[in-house]
Amino acid sequence: xxxxxxxxxxxxxxxxxxxxxxxxxxxxxxxxxxxxxxxxxxxxxxxxxxxxxxxxxxxxxxxxxxxxxxxxxxxxxxxxxxxxxxxxxxxxxxxxxxxxxxxxxxxxxxxxxxxxxxxxxxxxxxxxxxxxxxxxxxxxxxxxxxxxxxxxxxxxxxxxxxxxxxxxxxxxxxxxxxxxxxxxxxxxxxxxxxxxxxxxxxxxxxxxxxxxxxxxxxxxxxxxxxxxxxxxxxxxxxxxxxxxxxxxxxxxxxxx
Amino acid sequence: xxxxxxxxxxxxxxxxxxxxxxxxxxxxxxxxxxxxxxxxxxxxxxxxxxxxxxxxxxxxxxx
Lengths: 256, 63
Prior knowledge:
The structure holds two protein chains of two kinds.
Chain A: H1 2-16, H2 19-39, H3 41-48, H4 63-86, H5 91-96, H6 98-103, H7 109-142, H8 148-175, H9 179-199, H10 211-221, H11 226-255
Chain B: H1 6-29, H2 37-46, H3 50-59
């Protein structure tokens, strides 16, 4: 199968340039940083020592709140890492001429793009699962009980959000030739999306940016709301659309 | 510092250590980097956590 060959090439490449080692580790670090620092905040303040006589209450955190901190960290730095690892995947290959070497053979454009897409998705999903798993372990150890089902809900729906990030990056990879521009446009799009969602909050109930909010709601209440389901489906839909669109763009660009 | 549970902190340190070691091994094995190798060695060793990540993203030549 042609697609499998391309897919294996991508996996091998991600292994060779060590992405399979460092991306999961960095995602784990990002996910557990906040739970641990929050837990040790009193000691940290003590050791800095500037708080003589100032009495203040540190809030008690519920396990769901701490999970939200992990997600917030992933939404900033995690997304940045994902965009940075995928920035050159097609743009770079076109610049260096590798893509011509591949595409001179009768390789379907869509196969070429989806193989890359799925290879990055596997990497991102595995990293996310490991990161949140370790974070979940710490939350249970330090803050209180959070069920495994809650963890799975978080991984599943947050993974959908990261899927959209990867799809956006792949999309811009086919549009522009420079890796730096891919990063710029992807981050810009995510920011514009988040601002639009904030402004038109009353109409955009199912905007992908609402995913983490719904996730926290779901693990607090203990059941998956319809809003979360629909938002998830909408996000997957947008991702698939983006990838199909990049297939089309890429085809026409290569022909020209 | 009293009351720090090392079992909690240890994984953080181990992950950092693995990142540094993998980055250094890769730096030694790789033929060419963006910019001088000794500079990357310093960055990896001195800037903890962020150093190895910077190296993996920007230091490695695409091909």
